[in-house]
Write a structure and sequence with these properties.
Elements: H1 30-54, E1 58-65, H2 71-79, E2 87-91, H3 97-100, H4 106-110, E3 118-122, H5 131-134, H6 145-148, H7 153-169, E4 173-181, H8 184-196, H9 206-212, H10 215-229, E5 236-240, H11 244-262, H12 271-285
Parallel strand pairs: 1-3, 1-4, 2-3, 4-5
Residues 67, 205, 208 line the site of magnesium ion.
Length: 288
């Protein structure tokens, strides 16, 4: 599967309407996609085992999307084959008073995956250039005047994100970012389902409808944020998500390929250690 066409090019004028929200007949049948997904889930588990043993790299997966695009489901699905001991998931909500008393990367930094682990962010620092921009939530962040008066505070933040993610890469933490892309119609359908299906009622919130009113604005700020921060150190992928099965297969493909590129290996044993292992084996064998 060619993942490159879903990758966002760096600093190229971009409109999200150029990217499909549906699967565009990439697979003949849904079963074909699900077969590949299953294969990838197995492969991810093998690579995760090596990642953990190698203990040098960490992989950070960032999920961003409009409401009801399926972040939670995608995360659950991707995780399903992984060893829980080697994974860490964080959901970022509106910042608390304590968090607002720090720079915005403070809570992000605290939540980074340890070496050998896969970290998953359900929302992330990207909210700082998305929801904060659309709703102008800068005031509570208590920033100094020279920041607030900057000619383009969002451009400043893009640079900060690029630098931060490059810094992470240069310390062994690889970042891959997914934007789950749905159409406005599909979002409506999913909201309706949440309202009509009692088992899904809890997922619906009136604030989701308020956010929907800002749909066009969000599409615009997302497009700018994605192209400004899709670097070779931390690329963005636009995942067509109207069909959940397609999005999940594509995500699994991207994660598998990233881990393969990282190429974690089991630690090499020294001659001495190997000799010792032989001795331990003999000891166990002669145990009475
Ligand atoms: P669900 O799909 O279950 O609704 P969610 O990710 O939308 O999950 P919510 O608790 O509904 O979770 O919403 C979290 C809210 O917090 C989102 O509206 C998001 O935009 C907001 N948020 C996250 N980070 C920030 C931030 N730095 N500043 C302001 N708002 C933020
Ligand atoms: Mg929500």
């Amino acid at each position: 599967m060619d993942i490159s066409k879903y990758r966002v090019p760096f600093k190229k004028n971009l409109s999200l309407s150029d990217y499909p929200t549906d699967s565009n007949g990439k697979f003949k049948t849904r079963e074909d996609a699900e077969k590949l997904l299953e294969k990838n889930i197995k492969r991810m588990a093998e690579l995760q085992d090596k990642l953990y043993a190698h203990d040098k790299f960490a992989l950070l997966l960032i999920f961003q999307a409009m409401d009801a695009a399926g972040k939670d489901g995608a995360i659950k699905n991707v995780m399903s084959g992984l060893n829980p001991q080697g994974t860490q998931v964080y959901s970022f909500k509106q910042p608390s008073a304590e968090e607002l008393d720090h720079d915005f990367l403070w809570r992000i930094n605290k939540s980074l995956p340890e070496r050998g682990r896969i970290g998953i962010f359900n929302r992330s620092h990207y909210e700082e250039i998305l929801v904060v921009r659309v709703h102008n939530y800068l005031q509570p962040e208590k920033l100094p005047d020279y920041v607030m008066n900057s000619k383009n505070i969002w451009k400043d933040r893009y640079r900060q994100f690029r630098d931060y993610e490059r810094y992470l890469y240069e310390n062994g933490v690889w970042t891959v970012k997914f934007f789950l892309h749905i159409s406005k119609d599909e979002q409506k359908k999913r909201f309706m389902k949440r309202i009509e299906d009692p088992a899904k009622n809890w997922k619906f919130s009136s604030s989701d409808l308020k956010e929907r009113e800002h749909w066009d604005e969000y599409q615009k700020v997302y497009a700018e944020a994605l192209t400004e921060t899709s670097t070779k150190f931390a690329p963005w992928y636009v995942i067509p998500s109207d069909k959940k099965w397609f999005g999940r297969t594509l995500i699994s493909e991207i994660i598998t390929k990233t881990l393969e590129k990282m190429d974690p290996v089991y630690p090499q044993m020294s001659e001495d250690k190997l000799k010792n292992l032989q001795l331990y084996k003999e000891q166990l064998e002669t145990e009475s």
